[in-house]
Amino acid sequence: MGNRLEGCAMTPADLTRRFEAAWNAHDMDAFGRLFHADATFVNRFGTYWRGVEQIVAGHAGIHASVYSDSTLEIDAPDVDPISDDAAILHFWSRLNAGAAHPAGPHPVDTLIMAVATRRAGEWRFQALENVTLVDPRTGELVLRR
C-alpha cells in the first residue's frame, strides 16, 4: 500500500475518521484534503457543490458561524468495494450543534452516501451526499435510535 501521505487515507474507511476529525477541529484545510479536486458534495439541505474549492468554501462559512462550536460523531461505515480503486460508503453521522446555532444546542442525525476513489495511491471522496432524517408527514427531524 505504500507510505501514508499527509491528507490521504490508506483505506476508504479511513476517510470517515478523518472527516470526523477535520470537522471537530474545524480545520477546513484538512477537510479539503479528503476530496478530489473535481469532487461533488450535496449537503443535507440539497445544496450542490462541484469542486473541492466550492465544498470547502461552503463548509468554511458554517464553521465560522452556526457550526463553530459543533461536533460530529461518525459511525463505522459500510464499505462496498467496486474495484481496487473505488468503493461506495454508507455511514451515519450525528451532528451536535452548539450554542452558536440559532436554534441552540441540538443533535441532527444524517445518513451519508459517498463514493471514494484512489488516484495515485490516495483515497479521497469523489462524491458525497448527506441526508437529514425527517418524518415525511410532519417535517420533524428524526433521531435514529
From TrEMBL:
- Domain of life assignment: Bacteria
Q: Where is the DUF4440 domain?
A: 14-124
Return the InterPro entries for the record.
DUF4440, NTF2-like_dom_sf, Steroid_delta5-4_isomerase
Q: What is this protein called?
A: DUF4440 domain-containing protein
Organism field: Rhizorhabdus wittichii (strain DSM 6014 / CCUG 31198 / JCM 15750 / NBRC 105917 / EY 4224 / RW1) (Sphingomonas wittichii)
